[in-house]
Amino acid sequence: MTRLAIAIDKHRCIGCNTCALACKMQNNVPDGMLWNRVLTEDCELFDGAVGQYPNLSRSYLPIACQHCENAACLRACPTGATYRDDKGRVEIDYDKCIGCRMCMAACPYNARAFNWNEPSRSTGFSYGDARVPERGKGIMEKCTLCKERTDEGDEPMCVHCCPADARIFGDLDDPDSEISKLRREQTAHVLLEDMGTRPQVFYVN
Amino acid sequence: MTENVRRGFLSRRGFLKAAGITAAAGAVAGSMSTAESWLAPAKAIAQPEEHVACTYHNEHCLCNCVLQCTVRDGRLVMIQPRPNDDHRFQNVCCKGISEIEHIYGEARLQSPLKRVGERGSGEFEAISWDEAFQMIADAFKNSQEKYGKDSVWIQYSTEAQQRFTPLLADIINSATSIGGGHDGYDMGQVNGALPATFVGPFGPNTIWDWENANVVMNVNCNILETGMMWSRGFLNAQKAGTKIISVDPRFSTTAAKSDQWVNIEPGTDPALFLAMINYVLENKLYDEENLIANTQMVFLADKKTGAVLANTAKALDEATGEETEVSIPLVWDAAKRTASPHDAKGVTASLEGEFTVDGTVYETLFTRCKREMADYSLEWAEGITGIPANTIAQLAEDYAKGPSIINFGVGGIDKFYNGDVAGHCYALIATLTANYGKAGTGYGIYGYHVSNFDPALGTWALPKDAGATHVSAFFDMVHNPDSNIHAAMFFGDIPTQKSANWNNTLDWINTLDFLCVADIYNSSVADFCDLVLPVCSKFECQDEVGGVKYANAHVMANLKVLDPLFESKSDFYIEKGIAEVMGFGDLYPADGVEFADAILSTDDPLVKGITLETLKANNGAQRMNGTEDLIGGPVGMGCHTASGKAQPYYEELLEFGQAFPAWEAPQEASADNPLRSKYPLQFSQSRSRFRVHAAYSGAKWLKQFYEPHVEMNPADAAARGLADGDMVEAFNDRGSFKTKLRLNGSIRPGGAFMFDNTYRQYMDGTMIQSVTNDNVNERGRAQIMGPQIPFNDTLVEIKKAGA
Lengths: 205, 803
Known about the structure:
The structure holds 2 protein chains of 2 kinds. By secondary structure, chain A is α+β, with helices and mostly antiparallel strands.
């Protein structure tokens, strides 16, 4: 079996948002939407801090689809548009999506983005990988783990572009992979573990 | 677990709030086409034309990323890092990727524009390039005939350049900035640090050496934002066990990722280091053996005047071959009990003591140093810097133990009146503790210098009488009432970036007969120019190559990714077009290929075999020969000073009381300045990961993450009745600017902070340079890099806009 995933080293994440734009570019994500975002944890303001000066802390939390083994979105989807594929990725069959947004409500990570209107791009043209399918009004979309790239053995664009080497891609079912070794580290953790979604994306400190 | 997740399933509100289209100010932008209407519609063909090309990105963030760009149907659709066997140089950042939208975006200048309204009105009309070139040529010729050749000022900046060496100022013998660090900014600490060894200033080694250090003191350098590509050097050193200590008033990203954050009162860095130096001296943490063998600290100085005792000798000047007199400092030879030349065979120099020579009392510089530093106690420094005395002691202990590095940037204290004193302190404490010359030691701007290799590339030959009149830094021209400048041209927005106190700059602009700016984007100065010219982005070339340079142990080519967008031209062709009308066109290379070939024509073995053809075959970049080891061996304790030894005593600064560094308060933002009763907030600006100064202000993809705003500590805002999101006005006697207020606990109470500069159309027509301090420290004229603008040595008050 294969379970493709991404590990994120939170200490190495410098909050640069390169991953967010790499994803937007690769996947032709329209204006006003991002599949991958970087939050400043527990702060409304990006680059804010927790605490009172000078007793402060700050950490960044890059977040996208967590590719859960027990995905809440998948269970909520009435048409089977959301599915888990043979590489362990949670994907959307756009042709089957009816825009009901049940998955969006179900996802505890707020990882999904919906095309409320016809997508618009301030560039005036589509960008990104030509293999990525177009999505129109009324269609749900999210991180595909760069399906078009990872199908060919390449790493996702967010991993490829990260300037701090904070993102590690690999197969959790390969015990010798770097990501599997990281998964066994003491600080490895998933978001909202108590929700029982069993995310494959995980974080190390 | 993060609260963002728990509370609201990750707030979607902010995420969906798309960056709105902000109309650029004035008719410049109003007359623009959109990228959509300008570009030919994509053809509905089964197989879109797609190709990949590589180029290098901005110089000014100093990372020198080489980008692999995908072009589909003539449009830039993908930007990735160019693959590189050395992963450290396979780089792109958010700014690089944002170019997908940015180069077509709302702020892009599209055609030559001639001002038709009053200066600042923003009323322009589009004209042809031929008309524009004629207009410039006429203005330059008229000015030079009437007022002399140096009445024309031409200045360049990296934003609007593609890296072919500019030639026009040399060809028409115009005035220009002195260059080489004499531009009046960024070099305050270098003024103080460099003369001790003349090794550097960009670090005697590279950031990859940080792994060999026990401690890196990262002083006023937010390297994880301003030079993201060096984050690997920073993070890998931490992983290897290096303790990184960041000194910064603001809890920056770099401070947050450091092993220790030392929060400091802005502008007081010299006090911290002076106390550390005194602690090192009092606790004998210095390296006595090295001080005697390899430093100037054993030289004798007149106790009364401070003049170094020296013999004179005849020597041959290596440069001219002519006989000259040199000074040979004397030391006290303990064995012979007499003053002897420091380099005399068998001399046993005393490190400490007072000695009488010919009736005059002399002391060793070490003794003098101890005497002068004695008042800088830990408690004194705590009172000035706000850093607890025991923390200062710990920093001195950590640093002295070594091997230690001091990395400084070009912000923070560098943009204070007393920035040179901080740099001088780095040199002195490194000398005392022998934290230089060896692996894992040194002090300098490491976030610039990531390889030790500097090949001598070729140049385009000009006639012997070519050469610019080097006048001064730009700010000096603005402040000189006798300035002879009557016509000026800037490549990039120099006037709002390289001069403080905008109203003074505007007064100078209003004295000119002609002002032209060539820029990629509608930057702040455009509305005040007579002529505005659109420059190509780094992705566009008229020829197959738009520039060649070296960086990061590679030779890089700016290969064509796109044809020039809209009506833009490269800086090279703009210069060439002006020169042709002025009758000098034949002095230019025929095209970019000829220029690139000239640059690559060199015998330097580092670049042997690298040609434009091989660069094209290697996707725009090639590793230079023999550059595998980026750390290199220790540079040794020898220095490029007159004595060959470390010389942290600057005799030429005796008249300023700064031969050894001495405490000097900030000029405006000092604690006891009475002006604080009126303007209590110290205003800092620094660079962000989302900008290179003002560049990228119009990039919509980046505006998703960051819009211009001033930040204050919540306590300071509350005291003024200000709330997060309020539109506010920051002001002082020099002027004011308006922007949004955001509250951030990262800001030191008593301060106001803004990521530096943006185009005025995004700040309600105002500019942050309206408030900044333009009183330079005249001591700088006796220093190697000249006076520096104290942008951050500025006090303001902030109130609700309109109140």
